[in-house]
Amino acid sequence: MPLLLFVFTVFTLHAAAPANSATTDTISAAQPLVGGDKLVSGNGRYALGFFETGSDSNWYMGIWFNTVPKLTPAWVANRDDPIKNITSLELTISGDGNLVILNRSSSSIICSSQARVTTTDTIAVLLNTGNLVLQNSSSNPSDVFWQSFDYPTDTFLPGAKLGYDKITGLNRRLVSWKNLINPATGAYHEELDPSGLNQFLLTPLNSSTPYWYSGVWNGQYFALMPEMSNGYFMNFTFVDNDQEKYFMYTLHDETKVIRNYVDVSGQAKTNMWLESSQNWVPMFAQPKAQCDVYAVCGPSTICDDNALPSCNCMKGFTVRSPKDWELDDRTSGCLRNTPLDCSNGSTSSTDRFYPMPCVRLPQNDDHSKPAAASSGECAQICLGNCSCTAYSFVKGECSVWHGELLDWRQHQCSDSSSTNGETLYLRLAAKEFPSQQASRRGKTNVILIISATVASLGLLAALVLLIIIWRNRTKLSGGTLKIAKGVNGIIAFRYADLQRATKSFSEKLGGGSFGSVFKGSLGDSATIAVKRLDHANQGEKQFRAEVSSIGIIHHINLVRLIGFCCEGSRRLLVYEHMPNRSLDLHLFQSNATMPWHARYQIALGVARGLAYLHDSCQDCIIHCDIKPENILLDASFAPRIADFGMAKLLGRDFSRVLTTVRGTAGYLAPEWISGVAVTTKIDVYSYGMVLLEIISGRRNSWAPCSCGGDHGVYFPVNVAQKLLEGSDVWSLVDHMLHGDVNLDEAATACKVACWCIQDDEFDRPTMGEVVRILEGLAEISVPPMPRLLQAMSGRGSSHSTCS
Ligand SMILES: *[C@@H]1O[C@H](CO)[C@@H](O)[C@H](O)[C@H]1NC(C)=O
Ligand SMILES: *[C@@H]1O[C@H](CO)[C@@H](O)[C@H](O)[C@H]1NC(C)=O
Ligand SMILES: *[C@@H]1O[C@H](CO)[C@@H](O)[C@H](O)[C@H]1NC(C)=O
Ligand SMILES: *[C@@H]1O[C@H](CO)[C@@H](O)[C@H](O)[C@H]1NC(C)=O
Ligand SMILES: *[C@@H]1O[C@H](CO)[C@@H](O)[C@H](O)[C@H]1NC(C)=O
Ligand SMILES: *[C@@H]1O[C@H](CO)[C@@H](O)[C@H](O)[C@H]1NC(C)=O
Ligand SMILES: *[C@@H]1O[C@H](CO)[C@@H](O)[C@H](O)[C@H]1NC(C)=O
Predict the structure, then answer these.
(1) Fold annotation for 301-432
(2) Record's Pfam families (predicted)?
């Protein structure tokens, strides 16, 4: 919460207040742009002027999206040289024909386009594409001396070229901002592969090792990012000729506002402005996982894609620069709280090791591998060198790290995949282990400790008694752990109780778009899952009302809400705990293949749960976020849909929250992205995508398929094709099942999934229909090819029409 509040109060950019209302798209020597004015492109989509960021009165000249109320710069002229006072400044044409920012009081030029201009009679025009061009005032506009498109900052606008001019050597590349409010040169850049391959790379600015490759252009899309052409309204071009080599895109639908940029934290993002939510909604992000950006969290941190925020200091460290950190610039990382003990040389360091389970070793990191027979010996080796900061001992091999620890990632430790990641032993000063110190003081203290414990236990007992008495007196409607129930049997917990039940939120089960989930236990051995919401900022009354309306929803395939807590700004939800965790772990991470029968039952159960949400309860609930992570499995592997009330609970915040996850658009229906009102059919679309994953046992991806000659075809498209060809579906089913599949059920499931992912929501079945079909009570015909997905796959359209 504090982080978000901070961002929303401080992260505001202001354009200078217009001094006069007349707007134009042209600057000439006779008609300069003065401090507060703005230039607006002929179509009204872009504006140019001075804007201010943060609270330090830093002014910049730049171009922003004029139709977006939230000032979003797309180009900055002076990113590394902010101007402190724009009072007497103007943008004009200087005597030599260049475009300049001029200080009228001192007649000094602050910056200039410095182009080789062959005439002094020039004008600058802000074109409809958002390109500011300096041209001969009297000749045709193709006669350009300078243009802002040649010097992009972090944003790649439609119609601009990203790449090289082979004749002049000009390299148009994107460089991220320093932080959310500072457009200065940041830490990451995106450019055409300097080695000559037709692909783009994302690289830290001061390194030559990319952390992401687009894959080579194949005529339609970059090989490793097929989803980029998921662009339902974008047209991509790659040009490589004698003069130049560049990538460009245009919009089919000019009314869409798309923002392609390299984010502060190193991801290349494509966002779209959604009028309905008055916000930028992410469509794609590359690399998909934030933690794939090399060392994004800085030194001595651990990056966790399943947590929000994903960067956290390692134990024993604190954020070096909280101000930068909160503005998304995490590159300075964390600082050690207590220095290591190196005073007495190699043998007598008092430092100790803190185990960090399930971490992934950095990709290209040099560490030494001294010979050691045991973990203990490895630890001694590390203690023996003052610069050693961590060690691991895996499969009989000792590894030790020196200096700052960079690019460490947290894996999720689940029962089924305990082989994921390794345990890192982090060297910390003894002071960082407080409890152990107490026990070392020796026997003499034992009695003292015991008596203190007895005393505090007595005190606790007295307190508990007092509380119980007080509770009974005041007849509180909720609050105690197992007795008092509110309306509809929903318990209103107190924060302190949940803190206790979860042992101060110590055992994290997972995290996601809405917050983190912790395991807890009520007194009577019932385990619970406590979700701490990060984003709910609703009033207490409304929150309670929503919770009680969601609380009355009971269905065998929906996770049951036991209670909630609403104290101050804290919002927590308490659910029954599902011992088998979420479906994704079983489908994608587990070594044990889930049998076909179980898969079919899960598909059916999820469909029933959704049908109930959509049709059967009083006012229909749209889940909006169906994905394997939100399908939990109980002890007998029956599915329970989780997070089904989130859309209601979070209200307007929802789309923001949903999309702050990781820019995977994989489960999102096209109408969600295009901004028209969403209906229950968006859940049907997501369900179809999930069903395909249940069938294949893999994420719907372009990963080469080992089960036939279908390299690189998007799996959903492959399924539709197979169905249209009338061929067997066995090749589509998870080959780990080794053919142990009910082929009739598999064929039905494939058809259902394909109908669910049709472009037009009216073509998709309702969840009720899906249930009847899966139960075998209704027939289903062969589905047509989902055209949008097919367009993405770049395959010919030989199968685009059908029954
Ligand atoms: C900017 O400069 C003008 C005079 O050049 C002065 O009157 C004004 O107070 C200054 N503004 C700020 C914020 O310093
Ligand atoms: C513009 O010139 C005036 C007068 O010389 C000076 O006080 C002011 O600081 C200058 N402004 C900028 C932004 O350089
Ligand atoms: C500018 O345009 C005018 C009119 O077309 C032409 O006469 C003149 O030569 C041009 N100047 C340059 C430097 O291109
Ligand atoms: C480059 O990286 C090093 C650490 O690897 C860092 O100290 C330095 O500040 C970085 N330079 C820039 C310009 O980011
Ligand atoms: C896509 O862009 C290319 C090059 O600009 C153009 O030739 C083509 O007609 C465009 N296609 C569509 C569907 O807009
Ligand atoms: C280091 O050695 C000095 C004297 O040699 C001793 O007084 C001190 O306690 C030692 N410190 C530790 C942490 O062992
Ligand atoms: C400690 O390790 C570093 C890095 O491997 C090495 O350069 C240094 O010589 C070692 N120091 C001692 C005292 O062994």
Answers:
(1) Hepatocyte Growth Factor (3.50.4)
(2) B_lectin (PF01453), PAN_2 (PF08276), Pkinase (PF00069), S_locus_glycop (PF00954)
